[in-house]
């Protein structure tokens, strides 16, 4: 990279520049690369398979699939408002649940039915009433409550700053959620009730090729 910058080029291509480094070094160099690029005012095409790296160094992400541009957007848009199920699944982590759109209210709000006739409310849906759809909810947008989607804890994993809790819901879906590291860890088998952040939930039309093929990684 230093030799390329010394040439005076206004555009650089970095092909997996951090892939062989330890995690801590990669994290530090992400900030350093971004700082240098911003200071010099140059354009960099940064190729990576690391989604976190892509979001932390870029102003705009180009998501490739099968050798073609699949979706583009800012890191924030790609994470919060992905246009496709594949982008929602590939950028970050998400829970995917099959559902049916039961109704849409004129003033906003959508009622979904998960498997086993479990109702869920969200803000909006790309699918129409009566259609089978896919609900996408990221783990940080799933909360425990006194009522909601009944589930049982199947696994708890310590992630450093938080616990990742995996549950098996009454809708026959596995649903993950996060709790702070200083929180009390739930017991395996414990019954919990889950609710979703309505505004942060995304509802996609069920892909014609099926969910498994739609999110398949090449």
Automatic annotation (TrEMBL):
Protein name: Spermidine/putrescine import ATP-binding protein PotA
Record bears the keyword ATP-binding: yes
Molecular-function annotations in GO: ATP binding; ATP hydrolysis activity; transmembrane transporter activity
Keywords: ATP-binding, Nucleotide-binding
PANTHER family hit by this protein: MALTODEXTRIN IMPORT ATP-BINDING PROTEIN MSMX (PTHR43875), OSMOPROTECTIVE COMPOUNDS UPTAKE ATP-BINDING PROTEIN GGTA (PTHR43875:SF1)
Transport-associated OB type domain span: 135-204
Pfam families: TOBE_2
One Gene Ontology CC term in the entry: ATP-binding cassette (ABC) transporter complex, substrate-binding subunit-containing
Biological source species: bioreactor metagenome
């Amino acid at each position: 990279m230093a030799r390329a910058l010394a040439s005076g080029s206004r555009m650089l291509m970095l092909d997996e520049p951090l892939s062989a480094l330890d995690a801590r070094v990669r994290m530090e160099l992400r900030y350093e690369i971004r700082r240098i690029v911003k200071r010099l005012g140059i354009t960099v095409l940064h190729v990576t398979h690391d989604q976190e790296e892509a979001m932390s160094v870029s102003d705009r992400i180009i998501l490739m699939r099968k050798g073609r541009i699949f979706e583009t957007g800012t890191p924030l848009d790609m994470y919060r408002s992905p246009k496709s199920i594949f982008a929602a699944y590939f950028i970050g982590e998400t829970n995917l649940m099959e559902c049916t759109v039961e109704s849409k209210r004129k003033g906003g709000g959508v009622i979904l039915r998960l498997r086993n006739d479990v109702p869920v409310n969200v803000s909006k849906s790309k699918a129409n009433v009566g259609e089978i759809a896919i609900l996408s909810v990221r783990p940080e947008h799933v909360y425990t409550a006194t009522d909601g989607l009944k589930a049982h804890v199947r696994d708890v994993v310590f992630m450093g700053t938080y616990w990742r809790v995996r549950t098996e819901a009454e809708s026959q879906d596995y649903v993950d959620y996060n709790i702070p590291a200083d929180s009390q860890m739930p017991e395996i088998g414990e019954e919990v009730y889950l609710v979703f952040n309505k505004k942060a939930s995304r509802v996609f039309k069920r892909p014609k090729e099926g969910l498994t093929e739609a999110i398949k990684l090449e």
